[in-house]
Amino acid sequence: MNTFRLIGHDNPYGSYPSPVAPVGYIENKLAVILVSKNGTIFQFIDDDSIFIKHSRLITNRLTDYEPQKHRLFAFDKNNIVMYEISKEQGFISDLLIDNDFSTNKPFMRWSLAKSTKATETIYSEFIRTVKYLYNNYPDFVSTWYDNVVGNLTNVYGLNLPSKWQALFYEINTPQNQENISKLPVLSRAYYYFIIPTISILGVADIGSYRLAGKQAKKLGFKNTLLVIDAGTVIMGVSVIIALCLKAEGIDCVLYSRAEPNPTDINVRDGVKVWKDNCCDSMISLGGGSSHSCGKGIGLMISNPGKDIRDFEGLDKSSNDFIPYIAINTINGDVSSLTRFCLITNTDTHAKMAIFDWRATPQVCIIDPALMLRKPTGLTAVNGMDALANAVGAYVSTIANPITDAFSIKAIKLIAKSLRRVVALGSDRQARDDITWAEFLASIAFVNTAGGYIHMIPQHLVGLYSMPFGICGAIFHREFAQFFMNAAHERFADIANAMGVRTEQLSTLEAAQAAIDAIKKLFSDVGVSTSMTTEILLKTMAENARKDLFNLMNPRKVTLDDIVETNKNVS
Amino acid sequence: MTTNMTSSTLADAINSLPSSGELPLPLPPVHLTTARYFTKIVANGFLSPQNCKYFGEPILYLFYGGVFYRPESSPTRHAIEFPVAFVFNPSVLDSVERFFPFDTGAIKSGRVGGWTDRLKPIDPRFKVDGRRESVAPEMVQYLFGSNANYLRGKINSDSVNKPDPFPLLHEYYSDDLTSLGVDHRQCVIECQCLIDILLTRDLIWVGFPETMTDEFAKLYLLTKPYMPDYYAYDCPVIFNPSEIAAILADKAKEVIYRYVVLPGGD
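Above: the input entities. Below: the structure tokens describing the complete assembly.
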């Protein structure tokens, strides 16, 4: 290339910071310097072309510029630096060390990071970019991620999850927060599907809970801890279970101090009862309170030296779980089927969410016979809670064909039979339908993290000791409309499942019809509450903002959304 | 071949031809702009006609069925521009006021050598009323024979036997103008709109610099639930815009070919 005299630059983006094209003269002809696949080239331009002319000061500073050796980068139109092409990677890496660099143009950072070809730099900017999109354009995260992740794997050798939610799931754990700069290996199977090894679902005529003794014997139970709550004692079912165990030669110790929202103290007390009585196995009987408390006890027993608070988060246990059967007596409960438990931290009053695959019961028994005499109000609330689980799972961003099948069938059964079972609790067919729906919805829920429906209520439960089912049901009623706007097609499917005739409706109309059908069902089964203050909702929103469940929502929930929704809650 | 100097118009010539059976499906029109304007266009949510010195009125230019980018045709005279391409659903053709069987900017600015004079007056001689139904597919069929031929720049040899000015256009398309820097853009149908085109409904694809992905994210939200596909080209340094445009053209072609391979698309 002939001698080039630099006089200015042009920035095709029109905004800074940015790489810029040098403009100058080659033998008295105006030219711009470009990067081509064949190296540095120049292109002659018209004399009246528009570009930024450099001041004398800048010109003097860049006097050593040579097109074949250097490139220009501009922080603004008057702040231009020159760097050597051979040292480009170092120059850009230095730029990216500054967290305040190019905050107004995050994708400039991302583009520059890739040009370094340095895996660690690319990874950290990738995380930063995903977070930026999540915070600013949540609807676009998935599209962008899906577009780039394959290239990052193939070209740069990064081992990344196929779904962005899985990446967030990884990086939000405390351990990875600490190690984020150490380039953790993120290799996972991204669609877990976890259910108990054996699930026994009875019909209301039979009383399958009586199989508990035989199942316990198969698992080698000899002296078992029966974890229940006060409500279960009243039902007298625990006595029957104890007799069934006795018939198989199994001794039984009762622990009945699981509070409605079990606390860490309840768990520690249960551990003491286990140890004092030399138990070797456990049955939890009842609803979520018994099962959560039981799982907490099991985690501490299986992992000596650890406290229940050590298990908050994902898969924190390291040893096999104790032999364990869960018997469910509550429609809408998910605990008996899942790896999931909620324990209240008595210091903070917050619910600790524990996900541990080892805590999934080996055997789960769900028996509608145990629910026949359930009060009408509780039946209605539990049914709507199950509906909330199914809908939440169906619109979750990590829904998959298995959970879809479970969700839709659950919705169909609830739409078909909830009114009937609320009106006539002893209707065995309707009770069976709702029991199946509960099972299906729970499985779908826990394998999709359930999204919004559990994001808010768990904080409400922890803070104010409101029954979980009521919280879930209420928030489902109020928030379904909010999420519907981000998931029309999914809600249109829900309308179909609820029996709405949608043939003549647009997708949007069908989605709205789903919301109307849900509210109608709420009204028909008589679920109503008076609701809470703005302060209460703000408190929940602050918690919800930090919550992992928010990531699985079709639409991100903000404080304003919750406060706005509060206006509609009666 | 000698040039037919009669004053027949292309519109008349098309009208005089008998109906030739099933026409190819209409192709997506493409608007080309520059990165410098991308932010403003997204903020507006529509494309609007810009003053055109050649036609003396505000015109929004689109190309029929492809990215035909000329860096020097940008609406400003900046030293360098990065290309941005918007591909629309063919339904946008309803907004086209008139078609021309070539890039009028290249003709009027004298970039095609002696053809600038030989094709005069391009208006009204080569102007075809856009309000006429299926005019673009008709032009493709008579001039190129099929959508696939049009996208490859392969001329319909039978057009020399059609009424004036088809033979002249055949000669223009066939002339080797590479020495003048003219490439595949020699065979292109230009669409001129006099009204705004909204981005919210009919946008099917956007090509833009990756550094401006946040602008596209805004567009993505704006267009819900009709979000376009996209291609974000990598440009951490100032790459040659012509090479970028070639990549964009190839990527856009993948989108446009979806229409060509439809039943009746070719």
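Note for the figure: Chain B touches chain A through 35 residues (CB under 8 Å).
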